[in-house]
Amino acid sequence: SPNRAALESAARVQEDVMFAHTSAAQVAERYGLQGPGIKMFFPHDEKSAVYEGDLQSAEEVERFVKAHRYPLITPFNGETAPELFGDGRTILFLFRERNEAGNAAEEE
To answer: What is the pTM of this model?
Structure first.
């Protein structure tokens, strides 16, 4: 299907993100989806996000995955730098000490 083709195309670009596809209505219902849809699960922030864009657009699906791939607050290092600079998102840097005051600043 065109929807599956877009998902597969996005999966080829995002090699370190696990993708799954199902046509089982009970699986969609279990995860709170009505009809065709994409729901992304991740270990940070809100824990999941529902894609509301064009299911047939691989580019939009890729942008959605990239937008939710990292936590809103991410340590800046050699591993994350290329991804953060390469996906077109707006970046705000917070320089802080690794102590209680720094942790409090990050929570604000």
So the answer is: 0.71
